[in-house]
Design a protein that fits this description.
- This protein has 286 residues and is α+β, with helices and mostly antiparallel strands.
- It has 2 domains: 121 residues, 2-Layer Sandwich (D-amino Acid Aminotransferase, Chain A, domain 1); 156 residues, D-amino Acid Aminotransferase, Chain A, domain 2 (Alpha-Beta Barrel).
- It has 8 helices and 15 strands.
- The strands form 2 sheets. Strands 7, 8, 9, 10, 11, 12, 13, 14 and 15 form a 9-stranded mixed β-sheet that branches.
- It is globular and about 55 Å long.
- It binds N-(5'-phosphopyridoxyl)-D-alanine.
- N-(5'-phosphopyridoxyl)-D-alanine binds next to helix 6 and strand 13.
- The site of N-(5'-phosphopyridoxyl)-D-alanine (PDD) has 14 residues, from helix 6 and strand 13.
Length: 286
């Protein structure tokens, strides 16, 4: 089946969706994005992703392409047209095509470009990696200073993913001034006793939508939550570690820089948090 994608209000076969070479998303990575997961044909935490998209657009003085209700309708239509059961809907807004290259932002006559497409991952919530956990390496965080904005400038995270691949592990954790910021495309956590430690929100990390939900569920399940930076050495001494993202949900981390965390297997609190997260989010899916 050919994938049907969305481009500026139109649903098209993927091979027919064309964007100008002058689009600022292409020339300058002048764009923001969201990834919303789909389980059983329904969107997980769509409201959270919409709210963060609005914030990213605002921070970059970019025009919103359409009201949230239209975004929801388009997500649902793409799920329907592509018979998507489990997977993701990717959404990207760029500052559009001013017809030439210029560092200055174009005026209001340049309309934003809105693109959406689906990615099918049947059994996304039951992937075997959730039973064995991820191994990660640490790499220096040399990204820009506004990581709270979900921009499409993903070259360094891609480089870090390649460093992880070269080291035969699953992902990389970024380290800045001696402390972990986050993973290449996820937020990072450690657990000691009954306490979850994760870096506090700031411009240093993306404000994960999964993070917000997981910390809420953790508090409800009587786990303690401490939002502060932690080092790789502290992480290596932790009982458990994990990451969160819209596509991996809650994923155990069992090794950091070749040191096993705890007994080297996914820990009980991480496993429980993953179950709670998936149960609750499936119930609230729209
Ligand atoms: N990445 N930190 C970074 C740098 C991210 O790119 C992501 C998400 C997260 C987790 O955010 P959320 O829980 O809202 O997905 C944290 C998405 C999944 C991606 O780039 O594919």
């Amino acid at each position: 089946m050919t994938r049907t994608v969305y481009l500026n209000g139109t649903y098209l076969p993927e091979a027919e969706a064309m964007i100008s070479i002058f689009d600022r998303g292409f020339l300058m990575a002048d764009g923001v994005y969201e990834v919303t997961s789909v389980l059983g044909g329904k969107l997980i935490d769509f409201a959270g992703h919409c709210a963060r998209l609005a914030r990213s657009l605002r921070e970059l003085e970019m025009t919103a392409p359409c009201p949230d209700a239209d975004l929801l309708a388009a997500h649902r239509e793409l799920i329907r047209l592509n018979d998507l059961v489990d997977g993701m809907v990717y959404l990207q807004v760029t500052r559009g095509n001013p017809g030439d290259r210029d560092f200055a932002y174009p005026g209001p006559e340049t309309k934003p470009t809105l693109v959406m497409f689906t990615q099918s991952k049947l059994g996304l919530a039951d992937i075997p990696a959730a039973k064995t956990g991820w191994k990660v390496i640490s790499v220096p965080d040399v990204r820009w200073g506004r990581r709270d904005i979900k921009t499409t400038q993903l070259l360094y995270p891609s480089m870090a993913k390649m460093m992880a691949k070269a080291a035969h592990v699953d992902d990389a954790w970024f380290v800045e001034d001696g402390a972990v910021t986050e993973g290449t495309s996820n937020n990072a956590y450690i657990i000691k006793g009954n306490r979850i430690v994760t870096r506090q929100l700031s411009n240093d990390i993306l404000h994960g939508i999964t993070r917000a939900a997981v910390l809420r569920f953790a508090a409800e399940a009587q786990m303690e939550v401490e939002e502060r930076p932690f080092t790789i050495a502290e992480a290596q001494r932790a009982d458990e570690a994990f990451i969160t993202s819209a596509s991996a949900f809650v994923m155990p981390v069992v090794e950091i820089d070749s040191t096993a965390i705890g007994n080297g297997k996914p820990g009980p609190l991480t496993t429980r948090l993953r179950e709670i997260y998936l149960d609750e989010m499936r119930k609230a899916a729209i």
